[in-house]
Amino acid sequence: MTRFQRFPTAPARLVLAWRAAALVAAALIVGVLLALSGRDVFVLGELVLHSTVGSRFGLEDLALFMTPLVLTGAAVTVTSRIGLWNIGGEGQFYLGAIGAAGVGLYLPGPQIVVLPLMALAAIACGMAWIIVPTLARAYAGVSEIITTLLLNFVAGLLTYWLATGPWRDRVTGALASSGRISDAIPELWGVVHWGFPLSLAIAAGLAAIMTWTGWGYEVRVSGANPGAARYAGMPMRGRVIAVMLLSGALAALAGMFEVAGTVHRLQGGMADNFGYLGIVVAVLARRSCLAVIPAALLMALILDAGIVLQTQQLAATAVLAITGLVLLLIAIGDELAHYRPVAPASSTRSGVAA
Amino acid sequence: MEMPAAAPGTPPVLQLVGICKYFPGVIANEDVSLDVRPGEILALLGENGAGKSTLMNVVTGIYQPDAGEMILDGYGTEFASPQEAIRAGVGMVHQHFKLVPAFTVAENIHLGWSETPRNASPAVLEARTQALSEQFGFPVNPSARVEDLSAGEQQRVEILRVLARRARLLILDEPTAVLTPAEARDLFSALRAFRAGGNAVIIISHKLDEVMEISDRVTILRGGRNVGTWETRECSPRMLAATMVGREIVPQDMRARAEGAAPRGAAPELSLRSVSVRDERGIETLSDVTLDVFGGEILGIAGVAGNGQRELTEVLTGLLSPEQGEVLLGGRTAAPGADAFARSGVGHIPQDRLHSALAPSLGTTDNMALREYRAPPIGGSGLFRADAALALAREIAGVAEVRIPDFGAPVRNLSGGNQQRLVARREMRIASRVLVAAYPSRGLDIGAIATMHRYFAELRDKGVAIVLVSEDLEELLNLSDRIGVMFHGRLMATLDAEDADIERIGLLMGGRNMGEDAASGGGVA
Prior knowledge:
The complex is a heterodimer.
Chain A: E1 3-6, H1 12-36, H2 41-52, H3 56-81, H4 89-106, H5 111-140, H6 144-164, E2 187-189, E3 192-193, H7 195-212, H8 214-224, H9 226-231, H10 236-263, H11 274-285, H12 292-311, H13 316-336, E4 339-342
Antiparallel strand pairs in A: 1-4, 2-3
Chain B: E1 14-23, E2 26-36, E3 41-45, H1 52-59, E4 67-72, E5 75-77, H2 82-87, E6 90-93, H3 105-110, H4 122-136, H5 151-164, E7 169-173, H6 181-196, E8 200-205, H7 208-214, E9 217-222, E10 225-231, H8 237-245, E11 268-278, E12 284-294, E13 298-302, H9 309-316, E14 324-329, E15 332-333, H10 338-343, E16 346-349, H11 353-357, H12 364-368, H13 386-400, H14 416-430, E17 434-438, H15 446-461, E18 465-469, H16 473-479, E19 482-487, E20 490-496, H17 502-509
Parallel strand pairs in B: 3-8, 3-9, 6-7, 7-8, 13-18, 13-19, 16-17, 17-18
Antiparallel strand pairs in B: 1-2, 1-4, 4-5, 9-10, 11-12, 11-14, 14-15, 19-20
Helix pairs in contact in B: 13-14, 14-15
Organism (chain B): Acetobacter nitrogenifigens DSM 23921 = NBRC 105050
GO molecular function (chain B): ATP binding; ATP hydrolysis activity
Membrane topology (chain B): Peripheral membrane protein
């Protein structure tokens, strides 16, 4: 008799297999529901595939979606490594966009100088936006979840104010938007700019730092058990501050890439939930900086497919429901990956349970 | 024995026949049969991992057996859940209490109970709790919050909660592990009263003295199997120990030095000079403590838990900087910080290994690198070399004689004894000067405790100074050269183990100094 037993760890192989099954199951459920409501599922499916992975235009779109998602996903992942949650990616994204736009709009100069300055300004603004939650966490034990979250709304309104007030576009009169920024991240492949490979390199670099440096080890131990970190004399407070500032900088860099690579303006509402979706990406990546890349790809696919479906007169709420279904099934798959079959009563005894 | 013999033909309260329970790659219980009769206390004895807790989890419906039968009062039974077990009169008090800390005693007693009245006002619940408390002879304060209670008081609430639900079979998992000797005595007399009412008790333990004192019969488990059941009066502690571990345990006088052992050092390795510490509420937890530890000796620290031992070990290992006084390492003022102390050769086996010595969710490799990741071969120039860390982990596991199937798997999957061996060996590697060990044998079985003691003797013979904090006087007397006694944050006295006796230490632990007329009062906090 084969029985299934829940193990405390889930091997990556099983997680992947279950997630693949979850995606197939989601596709089937959505397909059946669409067919029942009188849609031609195969035409829709082909359209979705064509406009995501099946055409150059679709692939370019995917890469553009992935770029901010990789960075905001990495921002949440690094804090989760030390046991914290930066829910403020959205706000830090806006601040990064503001910093970058400010330099781009009002600091003339050669592109080779202005672009790095835009990035630096974005990083500085993102760090400034998370510094209060960081210090409150490190010195007073204030939950960073609440403080980072609440600052998102302030950042969103600040962006609207700038884009409709002092920085508003006086040339074309575009609504809730600054003027066009002439300095842009060079394009690499169609509309895909250099921010895309750069964000992948940043995720890989973070993974290397987390695995192969003493700093990464200290972050790992501090996150797994603060008591053990204190016992080993690790500078916990310093690590918490560094990781949260790094997180703010990553989300802000996503904002800078968006301003200088894709939108070329500061626009109200431009963060478009990328900060919050970064949390979903981080959860999908299960604390691994490297796994942020495929997780962001999956998220980008879902977003992209959703847009395609909306062009086919599917309600935005239906698209949201499909997104929720996919994530729900993946969460179930992750849980199932903890279960493995066990053969009872093998005569070899490798240990005895307590 | 004043125990009322059950009338002939009275079925056992509980009978287990051929119970099997398997976990992946592990046999937790195999073909276990035993019975518990009305009016008796049955001790379930076995090493860590012998399958005692699993068996009791089967009995109380937390696990379902893979094979075998459970017979309650002569009828075959199956429990799908703990609720069914308690409805059938089988109640268990776990080692780690399952109470809601923020609730009052009365609220905890009435939580999830079908007989809780609709009108659950505090006054009603507290009155009911008071009545129950008097009925069963377990004094509790119904309006107190559970988080404010001592471990002993919390245990009384747990037991009362089970008894209130009309349990006739009470199962206790290592009930005295968290109790002071006085609280343990109270518990035992309450259990005897419960037995006198024709009820049955199963008490899980690996403390031999306690089994001899309280039980009527003993069932011993080893490797998940039932080795046998004996009348306690026919047993001796020595025979029980040998049966439990499956080999003869030779009690050793660990104080004897091996040949060629390093002599006791002339200058102290680690000293405290009038050290005082206050907690965050400003209460003095360590008062004016002065002590010296010399190389090649074991200094035992006795005392009832909570009398400043934790603060003492933290000061000795650099985790806590004293507010007043000085800490000297090798005669010089020590640089502050746990890291600096570790680098100067101070190892630390803390009292709660899962809370501070290990990161339970990380692998063995990461956990074994905790002390040596800063320096080559693992560290250096900011790097963390995972292959070197793995090599270190293999080496430590080898010396500790712990078999690790997967060095990346969470260390919490290992048994408590194996975790402690790994921690001990990791700390012994860096303890070139001093090793501070707090309650190193807590929660370990006899075999693992013997290993731990052997480690300390080896280290002492190498000339390292050892501070051993323990509440087990037997252990302290067997190992220590000198014994210091803590009471209310003070070091009451330091005695040579040669002329120390349990009586004298016991008095000091209660705050009475010989000659003095019990100046500080006899009460133990």
